[in-house]
Write a structure and sequence with these properties.
Structural class: alpha+beta
Largest sheet: 3 strands, antiparallel
Radius of gyration: 16 Å
Distance between the termini: 65 Å
Bound molecules: iron/sulfur cluster
């Protein structure tokens, strides 16, 4: 038997496919060229080794804003969802302040 599925909305499906669980909004809807690593909402575990500290952009992490809002909506703490730090940013991207 052959099954054929039609994607009703290809643009929405592309956003769904590109967005890991735990992001605040669709991946790629943030500032051009920005990724979650570098967003003020991106939360990584403590970097333990020199190699990790030298390349923090390789360490997976979670979106703190997603965690806070999802926990508030659920009325209890939800699981922290870890994803690739180089995932294209969403529209909730927050630029860190420029250091003087
Ligand atoms: S860009 Fe920032 S707010 Fe959006 S999912 Fe990534 S860490 Fe969260």
């Amino acid at each position: 038997m052959t099954q054929r599925l039609t994607v009703a909305n290809p643009e929405l499906q592309a956003l769904i496919d590109a967005t890991p669980a735990g992001m605040m909004h669709w991946s790629g809807t943030g500032p051009v060229g920005k990724v979650c690593f570098g967003c003020l909402n991106f939360d990584q575990r403590q970097l333990r080794t020199k190699a990790e500290r030298d390349a923090p952009e390789k360490i997976r992490g979670a979106c703190d804003k997603y965690l806070r809002i999802s926990s508030a909506r659920a009325g209890h703490d939800v699981a922290r969802r870890i994803f690739d730090p180089l995932t294209p940013a969403c529209s909730h991207f927050r630029e860190p302040p420029v250091q003087p």
